[in-house]
Amino acid sequence: MLSEPFYFPRSKWIEIPKSWKKSIVQGKSYDTEESEGRKLFEDVKNSFLDTINLKNYSDPSFITTVDMRFGKEQIVQPRLGQSSFKVMVLDAYDRRCAITGEKTLPVLQAAHIKPYSQNGPHALGNGMSLRSDFHVLFDRGYVTVNKDFRIEVSNSIKEEFGNGREYYAYHGERLLVLPDSTEKRPAVEFLEWHNENVYIG
Q1: pLDDT tens for residues 146-194?
Q2: What region does 101 belong to: left with phi over 0, alpha with psi -120 to 50, or beta?
Q3: Is 109 inside any structural domain?
Q4: Residue 162, exposed/middle/buried by CB under 10 A (0-12, 13-18, 19+)?
Q5: Is residue 124 assigned to a domain?
Q6: What are the DSSP calls for 65-117, one per residue?
Q7: Taking CA atoms, which of 34, 63, 122, 165 is between 20 and 30 Å from 92?
Q8: pTM of the predicted model as reported, rounded to 2 decimal places
């Protein structure tokens, strides 16, 4: 990780090493144990010694310290009704994940099918109880539920992350947990909205 980076003013730019080729786009480095790398390091040190506090980065005992641990306080706008929505949804699903049946309460979340930020309502028809990882995948479009309450998992999980075996095991399966009352189940209009507007496919 870069810590406290700085930029050279144009007047202080360092001459390009002779070994640097215009075709190089990545992966080039210089070793300070070699003459060219040592010269680059010395150029930086000599030009900016008065503006940077040079550390001995080659010393294995070197530890970076950070004085400030938190940024400035910020004002946020809480979503009104969110707590009630969560209680209402988890209760409708008997405090279980609709997809996996998981009952460990700390990882269960009330997911909006149509996001609240896009005028999705705090209503049972627009909610599902999901395990936290499935909630994230659902919100990002890697997972969806069709109007028949069957789970669909996007091929993009494997394409982008080279994994996802656990999630693909649920593909095509019907939701494991659904409220007994039809009125409390996910509304077709919101499921179709998610399929068309969020699901990556």
Answers
A1: 999 999 999 999 999 999 999 999 999 999 999 999 999 999 999 999 9
A2: left
A3: yes
A4: exposed
A5: yes
A6: --S--S---------TTHHHHHHHHHHHTTTS-TTT----GGGEEEEESS-GG
A7: 165
A8: 0.64
Q: What are the angstrom distances between the C-alpha of 30 and each of 40, 48, 90?
A: 8, 19, 57
- Looking at residue 30, the DSSP 8-state letter turns out to be -
Query: Distance (Å, rounded) from C-alpha 172 to C-alpha 155?
Result: 13
User: Using alpha carbons only, what angle is made at residue 131 by residues 130 and 136, rounded to the nearest 5 degrees?
Assistant: 85
Residue type, 36: E
Find out whether 14 and 43 touch, Cβ atoms under 8 Å.
yes
Contact call for residues 129 and 96 (beta carbons, < 8 A): yes
Q: How far apart are CA 181 and CA 76, in angstroms?
A: 36
Residue 187 lies inside a defined structural domain of this protein: yes
Q: In this model, does residue 55 exceed pLDDT 50?
A: no
Q: Which residue has the higher pLDDT, 62 or 138?
A: 138
Domain membership of residue 12 (yes or no) is no
For residue 61, how many C-alpha atoms fall within 13 Å in the half-sphere facing its CB?
A: 0
Q: How many domains is the chain built from? A: 1
Question: Residue with structure tokens 């080039």?
Answer: 28
Domain with 139, as residue range(s), is: 97-197
Spell out a b/e string for 50-65, using b for 16 or more CB atoms within 10 Å of the CB, else e.
eeeeeeeeeeeeeeee
- Tracing tokens 């996001």 back to the chain, one arrives at 115
